[in-house]
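Below is a concrete protein record.
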Amino acid sequence: MTHRILAQGAAAAALAGLIVACGGDKSTPTTPTTPAAATLTSPKLDSPAANAQMDSLRPTLTVQNATSDQPSGARTYEFQISDSTSFTSATTSSLITGFNAQVGKTGVPEGTNGKTSWTPDADLQPTTLFYWRARAVQGSATGPWSDTFTFKSKLVGFNRPGELYDPLIHGETVGEIVGSGTFIPGKGVQLNSNTSYVKYLLPQTITNGEFSMDVEGLRANGPGDKAKVFGMQQGQDDFITNKYRVDIQYRGAAGFPPNAITFRALYGSADDLDVRYEPDTATRFASVFALSPANTYHWKATWGSEFRVQVRDGGTNGLLLYNVGVKSSKDGSTGAGVAAAMAKLSELGVPMAGVTLVDGSGLARDNRVTCRALAYTMDLGVRPEFKALLDGLSVAGVSGTLADELIGTGLEGKLKGKTGFLNGVTGLAGIVDVGRPLRFALVVNGNFGETAAIRIRGQLAQIIARFPEAPSPDQLVPAPVAPTPLPPTPAPTAP
């Protein structure tokens, strides 16, 4: 009973409360207030870095989240990618079928770690500079666009009629690696031996155009003589005997001269100068460079009305080191080439009296050169445009053809020079530190082999290094030939 009364009392109290709530002031109820629109900041672009080279055709874009003055309400993001800064229409979308030059996405949920990311669900156009941006959306509010950043889509190679492109930086090639090679991510392919190379079979003959590449790892006084940087040929037969070939070289320690950049292009014959393009001997000797393995060198060969090779230190826009073009000679003879070489040396100020050249290689025994001409050639190295002539010389006891000579003498590490040898002939021209730079040249003829030639060069070099102390004449010239005795006069006979 007691419990029922209490229950009835509670019901009565509740009913009284309901009556009070419904009675009293009879004014119109207030309309609920609409929340204010959010004010958003622009997101900050996080990655990829500005102008980054991507290794994917679907790169992930990341922004640092925008901020809002309204704490409640979910935020989403809109991303845009285009090859145009206007983001309204692509400029190259029709060039490559199956790829996209403009994509975008709305409604990307905000990330919980302070950053939001998005990855396109379609392949971007390869080898293209893209622009991208993002903005935040919260409720009915749309924030300002971020700054615009750029990235480069993945480089994709191709080999088609008239065009060849191979980036090599993504661990793949459109050619074939012959010999030992290792892909270095972001760099290219490393050739692990002096017989390794990348081969491309062109689908069509290219009669004029450009062949260029970036190369690292080249160094002065490398192995071999005519080390090839790149080449081209007709067909796939023996390169050395091919009558249609291009050979671009950075010569090694045994080259003539060492560390020279040079080239040869044959359009049907190695003997006919009307179809053979190569620098003359003087130009080759003026093209000595001590290249550094740490630097990137851009090599470019162009052909058409002339054959020209350019080399830049620092990539495509780097310092121009080498720029030589050759047109075919009207006189298709060795004599014409020799005459051009002699004229160039004379033009450079080298005294040519007593100098005779009969070939371009320096190996003919009828060639004649004076020490004065060699010394003046060394003098060219003090001119800024020929600085590499001295920089590329071998160093006694250290590098090149002098690496095993003059070890343990006072000239080790101090004498720099270029050696020469044929049976019975040896020479050395260079520079030695005697408290000041002393340029010198020596040529010796006689009856000796290579071992004796090394000894003779070393002895004379040490004599020269004692300058200004003058050696005795018998140390510099051959001993005079003893006179032949006259036959005895016969005794008179008796009549």
